[in-house]
């Protein structure tokens, strides 16, 4: 077997930790050569647990190490721009978590840099690798439900992430709904042309400080003439609830459900099943498969299946939704396209 690709994970929080675990345990052509977290204790703890040979709190240590070919960026969204820019200029291949950047001008600058440096860069829209969403996509493309005419997305977190995360997340539309905006474009085979969004704080008053909301609804119109909606919530205290539906002219596809293990518990008081608790559980396979696909590209096979352009398109929809929520008006996307 040829030499393994030496990779580093930056940011070892709620998600970066799982990317590190996946590189160590499930990606056959990669090795986790280094990890980085600005919190040295976190870096040390994860390095010890996963037996990673090098850990640091300074991203520069990774950037200047020419033996490391891949950077997996899973630090807060507000840090993506700087790390992406430096990683591309240092000649690394990059996997970056969604959202690509915290604002659109940064995203467009990254597109320019990545193209100039000819850098491999994949964005972490993992739903595109989730077996249920993939099956839905294949059925739609096979014509099983006719022409897609309505998209519905539900993305509910069991609770709000910690306050520092919210502060650097870009807000509900940029952080959460962006998953539905991306998968909507993908499943509907059509671009979003306008959005009309609403939002409220129902449970977490601290969000007002960041002009954020914990519940939102975005109505979408597509260039094909189709329509849709995307609900996002931080208030699903019962579990992690990700569902979707595509209605076509000849049928409908439901995607996802709440069930965790495939068991039912029957007692006199009712019929129970356990509920998915969090994103690492719901998207275990998707997080593995997106990295496996990325490392194949780094090895020279194919091109990234979720590109910087996809990252920008989804961000444009998210920013239009945020503007619509703030102004109370429908926002056309054409006015926002910057490239
Ligand atoms: N695809 C998904 O399903 C999904 C799920 C969760 C988070 N995310 C994305 O992943 C990113 C991280 O989110 P999270 O929930 O893991 O955040 P988190 O706050 O749990 O963890 C972030 C970690 O990054 C570290 N960090 C901060 N600045 C850094 C820097 N410059 N270099 C290296 N490390 C740094 C922090 O100390 C922390 O340990 C965000 O962009 C978020 O949108 C994606």
Describe the structure.
The protein is an alpha/beta fold and 339 residues long. The chain folds into two domains: 5-126 and 286-305, NAD(P)-binding Rossmann-like Domain (Rossmann fold); 127-283 and 314-332, Dihydrodipicolinate Reductase, domain 2. Helices cover 36% and strands 24% of the residues. The chain contains eleven helices and 15 strands. The strands form three sheets. A seven-stranded mixed sheet has the order 12-11-7-10-9-8-15. Helix 4 (80-89) links the parallel strand 4 and strand 5 (93-96). Helix 1 packs across helix 10, helix 4 runs parallel beside helix 5 (104-117) and helix 8 crosses helix 11. The longest helix is centred in the last third of the chain and has 20 residues, at 308-327. The radius of gyration is 20 Å and the shape is globular. Bound molecules: nicotinamide-adenine-dinucleotide (NAD). Nicotinamide-adenine-dinucleotide binds at residues 10-16, 36-39, 42, 59, 74-77, 79, 97-98, 124, 126, 161, 165, 175, 279.
